[in-house]
Design a protein that fits this description.
By secondary structure, this protein is an alpha/beta fold. The protein has 18 helices and 18 strands.
């Protein structure tokens, strides 16, 4: 697809420069010579992204895309928030729904519906139907009229990563299918090795996935459900792991769990499916040493897990920046590029037809575990995108850390979390 001129782009969008209300403020771009994309990819995934961007720029003369590593997702959220205050933004940034919901009221996030529905530069109904609904629909924000303010880019699923050698020391073969089996295997590994079996990376998405896997919900309307039985069971489960010396908490923001898994120090960790390539490197590309499977379930016949991974939010800067960013987003989510990105990273394709691409078939033929995350697509669930969920995520992480340190009893921690989370959502709703 040829590069779009600003005039053609705006005509296709109905003539509204930012795709938002005329009163919404426009922000200055951080770079007028390129459309800057703030991202977090590192190591092999970062290199692949840079390679794809170079291919895009070579095929689309005009305003080039420039990838800038902006830190972790939390770092990027803080950086975008500060940049909104300064009135200067990139052309686009990776974001979770809870992050984008904070950008929308400031006028910084570009409404995408005019771009998607543009007759010459948008997406056809057939193309839209080719996106996985679970990837596309969370980018519509009920708090803001059901409009689309972000677009799926890199989806992933929480997975159980396991070390076969550590499990073998305890006489274990297959990974646990249920949470009772997980607890039993951790006890057997501790008895056989004298070491904890699991390293905990504190994260709200992991807690949400565990609640889903126990048949629970995390929100109803604007009221959280962290005091419901499924949520209390999750915090009780973590308290049991720590009390019995079966698990320990890693330093926040690190990947000490992945490193411990590769050093045969632990048997289990929970990480996104996009960690596959990094763990493979840590394991010296030895597929006999480890594997990945869906997370344990309360009832394996009715599974659930969390679908997460970043979207891309286009920023309300200039027509030229908007045109370049939208052209790139459309290109990056074509079936061919979506399949290449998935095969090379562990992320999931956002397009259904990408699953039939030769890249995906080769990936599945290489190793049976490569299918594990894709087999979870039918029952993976999204997290809330309501305004204020960013604050709730921080509260969940703090609560889990308190439970892991034994400073809070699980039931009391869950009730306190529910009260504070509801207050955070109420404040955000009033704002």
């Amino acid at each position: 697809m040829a590069a779009l001129s600003a005039a053609g782009f705006l005509a296709g969008c109905g003539g509204t420069p930012a795709g938002t209300a005329a009163s919404a403020p426009a922000f200055r771009p951080v770079d007028t010579a390129a459309a800057v994309f703030w991202d977090r990819q590192i190591t092999e995934t970062g290199e692949l992204l840079r390679q794809l961007v170079a291919e895009f720029n070579a095929a689309h003369p005009g305003l080039p895309i420039k990838v800038e590593h902006a830190g972790s997702y939390s770092d990027i959220f803080r950086k975008v928030s500060a940049s909104i205050q300064a009135g200067v933004l990139p052309a686009m940034t990776v974001s979770y729904e809870n992050m984008t919901s904070e950008y929308i009221p400031t006028g910084a996030a570009l409404e995408l519906d005019p771009l998607i529905n543009a007759p010459n530069t948008g997406l056809t109904p057939a193309e839209l139907d080719d996106y996985f609904p679970a990837a596309l629909e969370p980018n519509r924000y009920a708090d803001f009229g059901g409009k689309m303010y972000s677009f799926p880019m890199s989806k992933s699923i929480l997975m159980l990563y396991y070390n076969r050698r550590v499990m073998a020391k305890a006489g274990l073969g297959a990974p646990p299918a249920t949470w009772d089996e997980f607890l039993d295997q951790c006890r057997k590994i501790k008895a056989a090795t004298g070491k904890p079996a699991h390293a905990v990376s504190v994260d709200c998405s992991t807690v949400d996935a565990m609640i889903f896997s126990r048949g629970g919900e995390v929100i109803g309307g604007r009221q959280t459900l962290f005091d419901a039985p499924a949520a209390v069971a999750v915090f009780t489960f973590y308290a049991t792991l720590v009390r019995e010396g079966l698990a320990y908490q890693i330093a926040p923001g690190t990947y000490q769990d992945n490193e411990a898994l590769a050093k045969d120090e632990i048997a289990f960790t929970f990480r996104t499916s996009s960690s596959r390539s990094d763990i493979m490197l840590l394991m010296d590309n030895d597929k006999t040493r480890w594997g990945m499977a869906r997370i344990p379930q309360q009832d394996p016949a009715h599974p659930a897990t969390v679908l997460f991974g970043p979207n891309v939010t286009l920023c309300n800067t200039t027509p030229e920046q908007n045109a370049a960013a939208w052209t790139f987003v459309k290109w990056f989510t074509t079936p061919e590029i979506s399949a290449r990105w998935a095969a090379g990273t562990g992320y999931l394709p956002v397009r259904k037809s990408a699953m039939d691409r030769p890249e995906m078939k080769r990936l599945f033929d290489q190793w049976e575990c490569n299918r594990a995350a894709f087999d979870c697509l039918d029952f993976a669930r999204c997290e809330p995108n309501v305004t204020g969920w960013q604050q709730v995520r921080d509260l969940v992480a703090r609560t889990l850390s308190e439970v892991l340190s034994a400073s809070r009893e699980p039931g009391d921690a869950a009730r306190s979390l529910k009260r504070e989370a509801d207050e955070a959502l109420a404040r955000a709703g009033r704002g």
